[in-house]
Structures are given as C-alpha cells and as structure tokens.
Amino acid sequence: MIRHLFPMIAYFFPQIAVIFYTTLSKTILGVLDSQTSVGIYTNTLNLSTIIITMISTINLVMLPKMSNLFSKNKIDEINKTLHSLIHAQLFISIPAAFGVSALAATLVPWFFGNDFEALKIFIPIIAPVIIIMPIGIAISNQYLLPSGNTRIYAISTFGGAAISIVLNFTLIPIIGVVGSVLTSLIVETFVTVFRLIYLNKKTQFTFDKNLILRIVASATVMVLMIVVTTNGMNATFVTTLVQIVVGVISYAGCSTALKVPFLKDLFVVLKGKLYQSKRYKVKN
Prior knowledge:
Elements: H1 2-32, H2 35-71, H3 75-111, H4 119-126, H5 129-144, H6 150-175, H7 177-203, H8 209-230, H9 237-257, H10 261-283
Helix pairs in contact: 1-2, 1-6, 1-7, 2-3, 2-4, 2-5, 2-7, 3-4, 3-5, 3-8, 3-9, 5-7, 6-7, 8-9
C-alpha cells in the first residue's frame, strides 16, 4: 500500500489546485465586492461549465485506451488518436461557444430572470472557455496522465492557482465581477497553453488550421442565420428553441458543404450503432 501512496498523492494534489482556482474567484468576489456579484459570476460560469462537461466526457472514456497504448509504446497511434480527439472536440466546442454567445440575449431573460441582465454581456466574454478548456483537459487526460507525467500537470494547475490569486485581488477591487470573469478566462488559457507547449515539444503536435478555419466559417454562418431568422422575436423559450434548431441545421449544412469530416463520421457511427441495435433485437 505504501508503495502506491506517493504516486496517488502526485495525482491528488493537482486536483486540489484545480478546485482551488475554480472556486477561489467566488470567495474573493464575495469578500471584496458583494453576494449579488457572486450570483452573477456563478451563473455566468454555469452554462459554460455544463457544455464543457458534456464535451469533455469523451476524455474519461478514452483514458484507459490511451494508458494501454502508452504501456505498449505505440507512439504513432497515440499521436494520431490525440490529434483526432482534440479536433473532434473543436468541431463541437467552437459552434457551442459561438452559439452560446448568439443565444445569450434571448436566453438570459426567460432562463435566469430579469435580475441577471448583466449575463447578456458576461456570457459572451466567458464563452471562449468552452473552446479552450476541453483542449487542456484532453492533453492532461490523454497524454500527461497516461504517460505518468504528473509534473507538467501539477505545474500547470498550481500555476493557474497562483495566477488566479494575483489577478482576483488585482482586478476585483477595480472592475468587480468583470475581474472575476476575466480571471477565469486568463487562468484557463494559461493552463491550456502551458500544456500545449509541452505537448508540442514532445510530440510535434500541430493544429489543422485549414480544418479549424472551415469549422469557424461554419459556426459564423450559423450565428448569422440565427440572428437573421430570429431578429425581432421575444425572449422566450420558443425563441431559444427555434434558434437552436436553426443553428444546428445551418451548422450541419455548412459543415457538409465545406467537407468537414466529423459530421460524416458521426453519421457513420450512429448508423453502425442503429444497425447493431436492430440486429440484436432480431436475434433475440
């Protein structure tokens, strides 16, 4: 048991740092500003956190596979899997960030209430975290942890905690809740960029700029379609539902037209699952 204790601690303490810098802003904001600001800040993060959790779920599923690949020293397959995983997440996270920003004006009044009108401004500010955070999580769960490299993982998390302390105490007295929102964005950017730099040194990982450009173009068209088709509609649940449907259809259509591969892959997977399900029912 003692032999495994220190490796467990090496994984445990960085998790404390993550919890520390993700919750510290709320505490400092409550002390230096007001509880109202804490409520606004917390609700600003909630929507993004839900989406990030959904996107990053695949990392938990892939962790055993990546650990197995590292144990067999299949470096090429590790690099290919990580590259595909990160870009597949971007295929979802980029339109999600664009969509949340586009929906904020009509979503906030009926979902959060009129007391949270400020969220119309803060949600678009924090939206880039939806793109940034899943990349950092993917690198830690699919490369750093399976390879046993807890040092870089710990440095990035404790570095984020240190930056969070400095920025919160600096920005909150000056600009209040905006300081907390900006701090969260800066900290998550630091953590992800730090891990990306290390990953690039070890694996020569690079982003597929052409693919990302096509994803961004599709997401931009999606936002324009949402704005044009729902302009003048009241801030109600029906409006938000219409915006989501328009956004999904326009993003899927534009992605298909620009030959973004992940949409086709998704249909293939779903078709395969459906076929297996039908075949299972017939056999039984």
